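Hi support team,

I submitted a single chain yesterday and got back a structure, but I'm not sure I'm reading the token output correctly. Could someone confirm the output below corresponds to the sequence I sent? I've pasted both exactly as they appear in my results page.

Thanks,
R.
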Amino acid sequence: MSLAIPVVSVRAGPQQAIRVMVVDDSVVVRGLVARWLAEEPGIKVVASLRTGREAVDQFDRFTPDVVLLDIEMPELDGLAALPLLLLKDRNLVVIMASTLTRHNVEASFKAMSLGAADYIPKPETNRGVTASAEFRRELIEKVRNLGSRRKPRTAARSPAPASAPSGAEGHPSRGDAPAIPPVPSARIRLRPFGNVAPRVLLIGSSTGGPQALNTVVGQLGAVIDRSAVLITQHMPATFTTILAEHLARASRRPASEAVDREPIVPGHIYVAPGGRHMLVERANNAPIVTLSDGPAINFCKPAVDPLFASASRFWGPSILAVILTGMGSDGANGAAEIVAVGGSVIAQDEATSVVWGMPGAAANAGVCSAVLPLDQIAGKIGRLFAGWCCRPTSSICLRAGCCRSCAGLTWAASAVWSRNCVRRAPNRSSCRWSKP
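Hi R., thanks for writing in. Yes, this is the structure output for that exact sequence:
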């Protein structure tokens, strides 16, 4: 039995062109990027500037929706210009561009913590920029996806409107009031959580993922102590190295890029390295990491689908998978394989996602047991790993370690979300637990 919840998509009728400001001190890169974007329907390049100082000083003249901001520039670099630009417009979409040096990658992470929407790795040479079809594709995709989701232009000093929490776990989704009338989309059907308490946590994410991962992983605590956590974030090499370091600090638990053939053990966070797919295999009846140099999947390498699919073959119903913010649909097929073997899937909701592509694809495919705001996901994970496998549409509730073998478990009251569940088993006293 599944539960249908209404969702809405924020879509306009005829949309205005996305206004883009390109800021880069390289005249070659600046001109090339501006030309690529100008050739795209629905995108308008309103300014092409050399320094962060020029961007700040001329912002009010051009009023862009999206700023593509280089990190290393004279006068005022990208990291220094970012907060000044966001002061001009708190809803501005800023995409940082940087080459893959450790310094620039650290700066990109810092920028995202300060409010940048995303980053894009830039080839190291002008020739590399010119020849890279992947850089062009990713640039256009991010500008279009992030620009189309931007909120109406408001001054940063204006008071923010009050908003209600959003989420779906047997309840309608609620969030910030959209700027335009919502257009109803297909109803999401939630499925019951599995009957088995999870033993491993898998997470997939893309655009907006680093911030979301820090939020979730930083609140997991004892979940990491009792289980392994495997993460695929769409990122290139060097970025994934530093992501693992950030997650180690956020969680205060060991975290590192996965190494080929290393054992998967509880208490550790494994991050798929940039440029390699992370999979799970069996060796001596124990799980190990294998890294694949196969082709990109869903335009991504690493991709989420290979991790989910391979893990489903080892852990079966003991998997809990989480799909966080990200463009595209990567993870939805792997999530279907997890559900097929009895595992469970949680997706981040649309209101708190930077881009509701990956989680939206999984939710609309009907493979999710909950669609939750970002700040509620870690708590739900903790309750499930503690043994609560409550089904929002079922009269059955199983608590791992105590009730899995008992068929006589019923709700204490007729309401679906009862305050207590009661276990009555032969030769044992009754016991009660409060619903989390």
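A quick pointer for reading it: The chain has a mean pLDDT of 82. Let us know if anything else looks off.

Best,
Support desk
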